[in-house]
Amino acid sequence: MTLSSRPAEGIDADYRTVPTRTLRADGVTWAYRVMGAADGVALVLLPHLAAVLDNWDPALINALAAERQVIVFDNRGVGASTGATPDTVEAMARDAVTFIRALGHQQVDLLGLSLGGMLAQTIAQREPQLVRKLILAGTGPAGGTGITQVSRLSNLALLRGALARQDPKTYLFFTRTANGRHTAKEFLARLQERTENRDTPVSLKTYRAQLTAVGRWGRAQAADLSLITQPTLVANGEHDVMVPTANSVDLAERLPTSELVLYPDAGHGGIFQHHAAFSTTTLAFLAR
């Protein structure tokens, strides 16, 4: 394992300027960012489909890092991390565990968004001693309702965005109400506030591998979620068209120790649209 030379952890207060660091483990150079004081249990974020370091909302990260150490990373083959992206959730989860352990953590909290939430469920089941608490946002269980349609919806949004010169997240992450369109613009503007040392966008090969992984997750047999005994916060918008909100309700009903929060007039990106409320709820959940 090789760590890059870097400043002491915890001195950075703004995700728009926090430096990107690297770690070498298992033949991969992992790109990551760290914010917040290095005491207590770290909160590791697992991102959505096609996301890199710069797709996390700075407003949300800054709020979480005010009270927690927050670690954001590119998994194998994603963004600035090297290697080939696997095409199964299970392999991606193993890679995430490799990265977490290479950083020296024996136990962490996990926040998984969409595809990241699928990884988080897998890690909690297969490496229960590694996970203290879970936050599952905009995601669903294996075999969940409508998850096999993610590829079609994502590709249609890419086409629609190209024709309208709009970011596809405008259509996938937010409602089409006046409020939804307004908050989408605000969110997308925040994602562009980092002007230096931005991450590398995902490759087409990585995007296709991730879509394959999500499709396989959607076709998989339902897992026994009673085996996930860690306290879990499930969050989503009330109108998620990408991973239907019914999946969040299903997760909350099947997980033995869970609580559910649904945000009004919000979709797949509800935790970004309601970043202030979500960060407050998350920090309170982690502190209990």
Automatic annotation (TrEMBL):
The keyword Hydrolase applies. SUPFAM superfamilies: alpha/beta-Hydrolases. InterPro entries: AB_hydrolase (IPR050471), AB_hydrolase_1 (IPR000073), AB_hydrolase_fold (IPR029058). GO terms for molecular function: hydrolase activity. Residues 42-274 form the AB hydrolase-1 domain. Keywords: Hydrolase. It comes from the Bacteria. This is Alpha/beta hydrolase. The lineage of its organism: Bacteria, Bacillati, Actinomycetota, Actinomycetes, Kineosporiales.
